[in-house]
Write a structure and sequence with these properties.
single chain; Jelly Rolls; 11 helices; 48 strands
């Protein structure tokens, strides 16, 4: 017997065995899940950028931080590395990832692309796709559409088989097809409209029971929802009035480019951006990234994207909470959820409160919520709303869930601030040994090919390795004058990227690199030649394939310009059309030296202070024991230059300790944010530390293998722990000046601050010392607090009694707690700085 029950838009089919939910739908207000409109708060966590052992903890932190949804791209190139050969193991186990989200009470937005951008190698496309006959990417091209449809169908059928869509009782409530197509639409030509229509139709016909979206695609055809990506999206309106306003990427920071400083986005501005979006009717927003993670292996795109994909996210690369960003956003989410009934009760009413100030008010069905905005970048402003005065800090929004009381202001950060440090792990790297990568590579095994002229690199390597050897010879007559006026001949190489190491007769003459903006570069240097045969060997490197822009299939890399030898008696010689021999990859890669199964295939030499420094093309190995504790681990690679690193055969990724060139200074949260506005780390290596997941380690004798291209001091590599060392918190006392009610004298309404200081160390740590504590008028930033003219002398003593030895504690900012009023009739503040240790 089947009973059908209908209640508004809620429809549940009840059988004697199961309950089958209805499909997720939408209207102009929001997504509707099982008949309920929801403000949905989402965060991007990419499963290949962490590992399964981290997923549960990341989900717990996301849920605790107020998220409803986990958002992830689906990465075609890791799942189908060869046509029809699939990999869903380990970090690529997307089913396990989705089920982990469900287990922790989170929905999932599955963004299938299959183009993902994401600073990911080749934008997520498998390289084999480039060599499908007649293919043209992301356009109305039958070979591309057939391959794309095959992969999308594979993922959808896998999700259906595991009953992971919401109508089946699973967590997936939304999917995305294509990605940021409108951003480059003109570059795709007249076939773009036909392709977009096909992609939408193909996706919808897969009958997942949940809506599909397209980000940054204003022509998304019905019923597909077009969404916004960007720093701010309060300007965004969907292309049809019956579609919800959705922000698929609210950028929490920015990716890191090798050679540039680290981008950081102030949380005050990020919270301001989100509040701006919600106050204008936005019902779904997704933080990109909420946890950025790591570009393990060779997955970073760009080229020249760092191995770290931290993104200044609320949860850092290592899975640790970043404060105050995490805590401040958590409080924002709570405030927004309090407004949810009012937000769905009516459309917004706009009220001007001043030249740069306004209010958005939602009122109906007995509910009322208001957002009061101040767009001034330098001054706080007092405004009148509902016959009450409110003081608005610059570049901020106050949220009033009842149209009276301010529960949150985007510029008022009252949550804890944490300072992270890399500290010694206590585990030493022992018995370093080395093996030299032979430059005469063609005589040491492995396949090679010979051709006239210079060949494109990826067409030969198929991106199975970063490295391709180019080798040719030139005959010099013994009687030729090689030196002219004391000058040696000059070898000039024009390359399309991404780097090259140059050897002549076995001697290294230097290296040259392109940049992410321009992969083309020129190497030029005097070289020594000899009478007879001279061998020129070039080791070309890729540093991640492009991830953005149209026509990926036309991109190329490698040594494709002229190779010139100038300064001989008969003038310049163009070697470009000489006979060249090519070999794919390093000898060490062929022999699998990075793996525990391959290290015994060669004779390793012991490394000493003499031979451990500035040795190019060297393989190194050492062993270490897993450090005690559970803090995240990293390798300090500051003493090295450029190469790759593995632990127990698992690739940590590429490293390059190039210094960051840029301008760092004081970062003001006010004013529009843009990448490059708030740089940090100028003059330091763009990336110094490289994440080593603890789940990759054994208790003892873990194998570390490093391939160094240029030269460095391998003996100075260290294994370190990432940990909270300082935590700081502040709050004001409970006082009429900041209380959340109307004062008799002025009627002014301002924000009710939490009158407790909350201190929390990392997992496995406790508060070991109170470095600073003052109830009174202290000032300064975390790490540099100072006493003011008013100070309760027992501040540190009382807080030590409450907090020492505990993982977390709370302290009330009140005269009663400190048993004194150090300065009557003065608004007092409590500042605390504590030390955490394991």
């Amino acid at each position: 017997m089947v009973v059908i029950i209908k209640l508004l838009s809620l429809c549940i089919i009840v059988t004697c065995l199961q309950v089958i939910h209805c499909s997720v739908t939408y209207d102009h207000k929001s997504l509707i899940i099982n008949g309920q409109r929801k403000i949905l708060i989402s965060g991007s966590i990419h499963y290949p950028r962490s590992n399964p052992e981290m997923w549960g903890d990341l989900m717990i932190k996301a849920k605790t931080g107020g998220l409803d949804v986990i958002d992830t791209y689906v990465f075609w190139n890791v799942h189908e590395p060869s046509p029809g050969i699939y990999d869903f193991s380990g970090r690529y186990d997307i089913v396990r990832f989705v089920k982990t989200a469900a287990r922790h009470g989170l929905y999932v937005n599955l963004r299938m692309g299959p183009y993902v951008c994401a600073e990911w190698n080749y934008g997520g496309f498998p390289v084999w796709l480039k060599y499908v006959p007649g293919i043209s990417f992301r356009t109305d091209n039958e070979p591309f559409k057939a391959a794309m449809q095959g992969f999308i169908r594979k993922i959808v059928e896998m999700m259906k088989a595991e009953k992971l869509y919401e109508p089946q009782g699973g967590p997936i409530i939304l999917s995305q097809i294509e990605n940021e197509y409108g951003f480059k639409r003109k570059s795709f030509g007249p076939a773009e409209k036909a392709y977009i229509n096909w992609a939408a139709k193909m996706a919808v016909e897969l009958n997942t029971g949940v809506p599909w979206s397209m980000s940054k695609e204003e022509t998304a055809p019905d019923p597909v929802i077009n969404t916004c990506n960007g720093v701010y999206c309060d300007y965004f309106t969907p292309n049809k009035p019956y579609k919800p306003t959705m922000w698929s990427e609210a950028w929490t920071g920015w990716f890191t480019e090798l050679g540039l400083p680290i981008d950081q986005r102030p949380v005050r501005d990020l919270a301001f951006a989100v509040a701006r979006f919600v106050q204008k009717g936005g019902s779904f927003f997704n933080y990109y990234m909420y946890h950025g993670g790591t570009n393990f292996g060779r997955t970073g795109g760009g080229p020249f994207i760092s191995t770290s994909y931290d993104y200044d996210a609320p949860i850092d690369e290592y899975g640790l909470i970043r404060e105050p960003k995490y805590g401040h956003l958590t409080e924002l989410h709570r405030a927004i959820k309090l407004c949810e009934p009012a937000l769905f009760s009516s459309d917004a009413k706009y009220i001007s409160l001043g030249k740069m100030q306004n209010a958005y008010v939602y009122e109906g069905n007995g509910y009322c919520a208001a957002f009061l905005s101040n767009f001034e970048t330098n001054i706080a402003v007092r405004v009148m709303f509902n016959n009450r005065h409110y003081k608005l800090p610059p570049w901020s929004i106050s949220i009033l869930p009842d149209c009276k009381n301010v529960v949150f202001n985007t510029a008022e950060v009252v949550t804890q601030t944490s300072r992270m440090q890399m500290v010694p792990s206590g585990s030493s790297l022992s018995s370093w040994k080395s093996y030299h990568e032979d430059v005469s590579m063609l005589t040491n095994g492995g396949q090679s090919l010979t051709a006239v002229g210079l060949l494109e690199q990826i067409s030969i390597t198929r991106d199975a390795t970063d490295y391709l050897w180019y080798s040719t010879s030139i005959e010099i007559n013994p009687w030729e004058r090689i030196l002219h006026g004391g000058r040696r001949p000059t070898l000039t190489i024009h390359s399309k990227g991404h780097g090259v190491h140059v050897f002549v007769n076995g001697k290294r003459y230097g290296s040259a690199y392109g940049t992410r903006q321009d992969t083309k570069f020129t190497f030029s240097a005097p070289v020594d030649l000899q009478g007879g045969t001279n061998k020129i060997v070039l080791l070309s490197m890729s540093a991640g394939l492009p991830n953005i822009g149209p026509q990926f299939e036309l991109r190329d890399t490698g040594i494709l310009g002229h190779v010139l030898l100038d300064g001989l008696d008969h003038g310049a010689v163009d070697l470009s059309m000489s006979t060249w021999t090519y070999k794919v990859g390093l000898n060490g890669e062929t022999m699998n030296l990075h793996s525990p199964n391959g290290i015994s295939s060669v004779e390793w030499s012991r490394v000493s202070l003499v031979n451990g420094v500035r040795q190019p093309l060297k393989w190194y190995k050492a062993y270490f024991d897993a450090p005690q504790g559970n803090e995240p681990l990293a390798l300090d690679m500051k003493s090295m230059v450029r190469g790759q690193v593995w632990v127990n055969g698992q690739s940590i990724g590429r490293y390059w300790t190039i210094n960051a060139n840029g301008t760092c200074g004081v970062c003001r949260y006010t004013g529009a944010f843009r990448p490059g506005k708030c740089y940090a780390g100028c003059g330091e290596p763009t990336q110094r530390w490289y994440h080593v997941p603890r789940s990759w380690l054994k208790p003892t004798r873990n194998l570390l293998v490093v391939f160094e291209e240029v030269g460095g001091n391998v003996l100075s590599i260290n294994l370190v722990k990432r940990t909270h060392t300082l935590i700081c918190a502040s709050t004001f006392e409970h006082h009429p000046m900041i209380d959340n009610f109307q004062t008799e004298s002025t009627g002014e309404m301002t924000m009710l601050h939490d009158t407790k200081v909350h201190l929390r160390c990392g997992l496995g740590q406790s508060i070991s010392a109170i470095k600073f504590a003052s109830f009174g008028t202290p000032f300064g930033g975390c790490g540099s607090f100072q006493h003011g003219t008013c100070h309760a002398p027992n501040s540190a003593e009382l807080i030590e009694k409450t907090c020492l030895g505990k993982e977390s504690c709370e302290v009330m900012a009140s005269n009663s707690y400190f048993a004194t009023d150090p300065c009557p009739n003065v608004l007092k503040r409590l500042l605390v700085e504590a030390v955490c240790s394991g």
